[in-house]
Amino acid sequence: MTRFFIKHRKAVTRGIIALVVLACLTLHGFMLKEVHYTITSPKLTGKDSFTIALITDLHGCYYGQNQKTLVDLLVKNKPNAILLGGDIYDDKIAFTHTDALLAQLSDIAPTYYVDGNHENWLPSAQYQAVLAKVQQHGITVVQGKQVSITNTNIHLYGVSDPASGGFDKDLQTVGKLAQPQHLNILLSHRPEHIEDYRAYPFDLVMSGHAHGGQWRLPFLLNGVLAPNQGLFPKYAGGWYQFFDGGQTTHLIVSRGLARESTRLPRFFNRPELVFIDINKR
Q: If you ran DSSP here, which 8-state letter would residue 149 be given?
């Protein structure tokens, strides 16, 4: 054995280094990241600023006892609203950790929910039970609905995931309700439908689903592969802006919170909890 190592010392050393690098990258992909965006909108009334926490793609993953890591970040940032952007539950993973988080959210801030594809992959009865459970936690389901945020002119809208079969109807319903004089926010799991969203006067669209493209090359490649976008996704994660004459649409795509649930480890693509500050000026 000693002779083997002496003879193949360089190859063994390279192998050990490669394993250490792989282990470090994998661990890095488990480290939660706190992400902040600031958007200015003269439409905001009633407050000088409004903070939103965006949670997507939890997939039932574990973030400490009673999800303490996530809860502590939320409490620290004091959001005015919490938006749950789909795939909070998973069709293959136990609901334990998701339930532990959702049970605490409405005590932090008013919380709003739309589903994702994984909730829709649950058996019908189980899916309905999930919706009932969400509402029992004091969370408002906004699929196909409009909600006016108290003491502001912010109107929040939601659409169900395309896997539900109700996406087009929901979007048409809420799109017709959206009036340009309001600050209109759309919560939708899928970012790749941005061109459909831009047909309506939404100022801000919040999504997830892409998991940050799973693997990233910092400063070179924002993501390698995302569901329903394929290789090198255009909307893997981040802040995107679109200008249509006098209408500006902001798209915020969270890289999500999935980690141990993913088939492949995340490289240079940490799970994230997103906070959006909307300032009047």
A: P
How far is 42 from 279, CA to CA, in rounded Å? 8
Residue 243: in which H helix or E strand, if any?
Answer: strand 238-244
pLDDT tens-digit readout, 35-93? 999 999 999 999 899 999 999 999 999 999 999 999 999 999 999 999 999 999 999 99
- pTM for the complete prediction? 0.89
Pairing of strands 154-158, 204-207: unpaired
User: Furthest-apart CA pair in the chain: how many Å?
Assistant: 78
Query: 10 Å Cβ neighbour count for 46?
Result: 12
Amino acid at 178: A
How far is 213 from 268, CA to CA, in rounded Å? 10
Task: Give me the pLDDT at residue 244, please.
Answer: 86
Whole-number mean pLDDT of the chain? 90
Q: Which domains does the chain have, with CATH numbers?
A: 31-279 (3.60.21.10)
Contact of 74 with 53, CB cutoff 8 Å: yes
Q: Identify the bridge partners of residue 37 per DSSP, sorted by sequence position.
A: 276
More confidently predicted of 260 and 5: 260
Phi-psi region of 78 (alpha: psi -120 to 50; beta: other; left: phi over 0): left
